[in-house]
Design a protein that fits this description.
This protein is α+β, with helices and mostly antiparallel strands. The protein folds into three domains: about 1-65; about 125-290 and about 385-445, no CATH class; about 450-610, no CATH class. It contains eleven helices and 20 strands. The strands form six sheets. It has a five-stranded antiparallel sheet with strand order 8-4-3-7-20. Strands 5, 6, 9, 10 and 11 form a five-stranded antiparallel sheet that branches. A hairpin with a 2-residue loop joins strand 1 (about 40) and strand 2.
């Protein structure tokens, strides 16, 4: 029996081995071929190496689609803001209360369900609107100006700046009265009288401009952006002007933000100004700048007149001839001697003497301006005199012509509440109430910073002598070049010392000791290279009417500009146009004016803290 059984195993052993081998082969095929041993888990999914990249690419496409979809607006919950403000109060109780957190305000506690009826206040127009153009070497910021990193605290570099400023005055007393008449009038129901609505909050000073096109027409009016050094330029530009532009909350949130931050209000009414490094004076608003420059010119003329008289007396004394005695005049010393010696008054004429008006000094004008500058301690609602405000445009271009207009806006305290009387319904959703535009009729012309003046033909008539004048680091500089057809006009040259000016001659007056003055830093190299190429010299003729109609012939320089426009300029000053001669004379006159580095002083620093004043027009 056992022998038979053994024979059966022996007979089927090969089949059993083949079956086991087949099972093992199937396992190896499944484990090593069908199911790869190199699979990795991605997002809890097992993927082979060849499947990972397509899967990731597919997921990236889904994320990209989400980015392209419009964002879903989130409803702002006021209760969360109030809860967070309470936590801030508890956690920073020792911090000064005037610290600014750029967070949405919680709004005012006003029952908007109550139906009230108000007449919106009248916004008084601006007064004494004046504009001025400035050109100086100023400290320009090299990084972004923010509320945390203001213009006074960041790095800067000296560069030439063209600037236009417009100053005006706001009658705040009339503005406050109009708001109280609208929201605190005795004609209103007692429960409608709301002092929180009767306090005007400034929202914006809007300066607009238009420029002259090459054909002489004017462009449309454009809003001038805030100057680059305004720390709140982004904050102000994001202010919605209509309730339909609100993305969250109500207009009360913005009113609270502005009202509770005096620094924002100061940068609206009197924004920070540029530090002029080399100029006749520091920046001043146009109302004071015009007076200051006139006073400097008057004192310069007086000093030069005294210089000429001193030189004349010196030459007369040196020649041995007696000098002409000055004509006798009634002086203030005569009047004072009469007061000091009453017993002599009977022998003196009794003709009344007109009192001498005291002269205004440049430092007196600076003191007046300092009194006009607002501070964080100023209570605007208590001011009775019109407040000085200004706005500036630092985006003007050389050789541009501009016209300006300006207005100011205050917040509409009932914007979006449907509380306006029927006559004012059109303004009920307007967040800002504007004053009328004050337009300045004068055209502001920004002069060029680069001029070419063909002076004369070369001796061999192979080219021209061309003077290139360039405004560089606060002053005009000039250089003569010999230019032949086909050559670029101007090139970079080594800087030379500035020639003595008319004011330098005052240093030679005996007894004149203004003190040690700082010399403006001179650049090592001045690049006079222009975008113009001389093409040829041609003879032209026209008719002159100086002493009758006569024909004249003169050479002209043909040159081509960067935009491939062919232009001409007469050679010789006697052949230039009236405008061209004026530009040349203005440059030469500007080179005679003394420019000194200005020591920057912080805003609102009293004049007595600046030390003794220097010679008029110079700042040490």
């Amino acid at each position: 029996m056992s022998k038979k059984k053994f024979n059966i195993l022996e007979q089927h052993a090969d089949k059993i081995i083949l079956a086991v081998a087949a099972l093992l082969a199937l396992y190896i095929l499944w484990a090593m071929v069908i199911v790869s041993p190199n699979t990795q888990k991605v997002d809890n999914k097992k993927l082979s190496p060849g499947q990972i990249d397509p899967y990731i690419e597919k997921q990236a496409d889904k994320i990209k689609e989400k980015f392209e979809d419009p964002a879903t607006a989130k409803i702002y919950d006021k209760s969360k803001s109030a809860e967070f403000e309470q936590k801030l109060v508890c956690s920073i109780s020792d911090v000064p209360t005037d610290i600014y957190f750029p967070l949405p305000g919680s709004g005012r506690n006003i029952d908007t369900t109550e139906q009230r009826q108000y007449a919106l206040p009248v916004i008084p127009p601006l007064e004494k609107v004046i504009s001025s153009a400035y050109r100086a070497a100023a400290r320009m910021p090299t990084e972004d100006v923010t509320p945390e990193m203001t213009y006074k605290n960041i790095q800067g570099e000296t560069a030439d700046l063209d600037l236009v400023s417009v100053s005006a005055r706001i009658n705040i007393k009339a503005l406050v009265q109009n708001f109280r008449l609208s929201f605190m009038s005795e004609r209103l129901t007692s429960k409608w009288r709301d002092p929180s609505l009767a306090e005007p909050v400034f929202a914006r000073i809007e300066l607009q401009r238009r420029y002259a096109n090459p054909d002489g027409s004017w462009s449309d009016w454009q809003i001038v952006p805030p100057v680059r050094i305004n720390p709140y330029k982004q904050f102000q530009s994001e202010l919605p002007l209509d309730t339909q532009q609100l993305t969250y909350g109500t207009a009360d949130l913005f009113i609270s933000q502005y009202k509770n931050n005096m620094d924002v209000i100061l940068n609206i009414l009197q924004p920070v100004w540029y530090d002029f490094m080399v100029a006749r004076t520091q920046w001043l608003p146009p109302e004071y700048y015009t007076r200051y420059i006139q006073e400097l010119d008057r004192q310069d003329q007086q000093r030069l007149r005294e210089l000429r008289e001193t030189r004349m007396r010196e030459r007369t004394t040196a020649s041995g001839r007696p000098g002409r005695a000055p004509a006798p005049t009634r002086s203030r010393e005569t009047q004072s001697s009469r007061l000091e010696n009453p017993e002599m008054s009977m022998f003196m004429p009794t003709t009344p003497v007109r009192p001498v008006k005291p002269e205004t000094k440049p430092e007196d004008i600076l003191k007046e301006f300092d009194k006009e500058v607002l501070t964080d301690k100023t209570e605007l609602s208590t001011l009775s005199d019109p407040v000085l405000i200004w706005a500036s445009d630092d985006t003007v271009k050389p050789d541009g012509k501009y016209q300006y207009r300006i207005r100011y806006g205050v917040f509409n305290p009932i914007a979006g509440n449907d509380w306006c009387l029927p006559d004012y319904k059109q303004y009920q959703n307007q967040i800002v109430l504007w004053s009328p535009f004050a337009e300045l009729p004068d055209v502001v012309h920004i002069p060029k910073m680069l001029h070419i003046f063909p002076l004369e033909l070369l001796a061999d008539a192979s080219g021209l002598k061309v003077e290139v004048c360039k405004y560089n680091l606060g002053s005009w500089r000039n250089q003569d070049f010999q230019v032949a057809p086909g050559q670029t006009i101007g090139k970079a040259v080594q800087s030379s010392s500035t020639p003595p000016t008319a004011m330098d001659a005052l240093m030679m007056v005996p007894g004149f000791e203004p003190g040690a003055t700082a010399t403006p830093e001179q650049p090592e190299t001045i690049d006079y290279t222009t975008d113009w190429v001389m093409v040829d010299i041609v003879q032209t003729a026209d008719w002159a009417q100086k002493t009758g109609v006569t024909r004249r012939s003169y050479p002209e320089m043909l040159y081509i500009s960067q935009n491939q426009t062919l232009l001409t300029i007469p050679v010789g000053k006697q052949n230039w146009s009236k405008e061209m001669r004026k530009d040349y004379d203005d440059i030469k006159q500007a080179q005679q004016q003394e420019l000194q580095p200005i020591e920057t002083r912080p805003t609102n620093m009293p004049m007595e803290m600046m030390g003794p004043p220097g010679f008029p027009g110079m700042f040490y």
